[in-house]
Amino acid sequence: MGTVQIEAARVAARTKKMLREDGVRATGRFFALQAWEHATLPILRRRRAGDTFPFDGRELEYEYSLYGQTWRNERTIEIAIARYFLADAPGRMLEVGNVLSHYGMRGHDVLDRYERGLPGVLNEDVLAYDPDSRYDTIVSISTLEHVRCDEVEKDPRGSMKALTNLRRSLAPGGRMLVTVPIDWHPGLDEDIAAGRFTLGRDVFYRRDSRYDWSRTDRNGALEARYGTPHEAANALLVTTTP
């Protein structure tokens, strides 16, 4: 299944869910607004060209991509951070969750339990994954919060266990980047609050407006609620190896 097919399937599933839960009129308004935003995306890009957010002592430009409608959610900073992080030669690389290929970053191993039929994607459980050799770089973009939260098997420590197992798969001196939204997985939020879910260097972001994000502290991030006042995440943890 290609990128276009994946996106079409995602939109179809969302449409069915909205029709069932919200009705025809609300669903129609939602997709009319989306069509307008897609048509005016070039205007948004020009208007906000040069707008930045801080990361690692640099100012990074927001990502405005049609796939995933990044301007509407946390992808606007996650993809920008991933591009910056991977600008240095990543060596042998593993991505957990098939995200980056949709934004032009390909050629690495991908571990995704559920996206089947895609070349190069390993359909294995991140909690049990045991590679033959370790990776120089591991990246996961808003994926670990789903581990044992959105799955049939439930475990409030699922995200923490996934992070621990991935660290075992990292070569000595290797680099890892993980992002997770706040207020999606209660068990994960508990581990973040206690300082357990970390790779050693944590950066927290809060959403100041529909399009703008800024740095905050742990407590400020944990006060945020997913889906309000803005769509999707309103706070994000970015954790990396030192």
Q: Can you describe what's shown?
A:
The structure is a single chain. The chain has 242 residues and is α/β, with parallel strands linked by helices. The longest helix is centred in the N-terminal third of the chain and has 20 residues, at 3-22. The mean pLDDT is 92. The protein is built from 7 helices and 10 strands. The radius of gyration is 18 Å and the shape is globular. The strands form 2 sheets. Strands 5-4-3-6-7-10-8-9 form an 8-stranded mixed β-sheet. A two-stranded antiparallel ribbon has the order 1-2.
Estimate what percentage of residues fall within beta strands. Answer: 15-25%
Total count of strands: 10
Q: Taking Cα atoms only, what radius of gyration do you get, to the nearest Å?
A: 18 Å
**Unreliable residue stretches:** none
In sequence order, what are the helices and strands, one letter per element? Answer: HHHEEHEEEEHEHEEHE
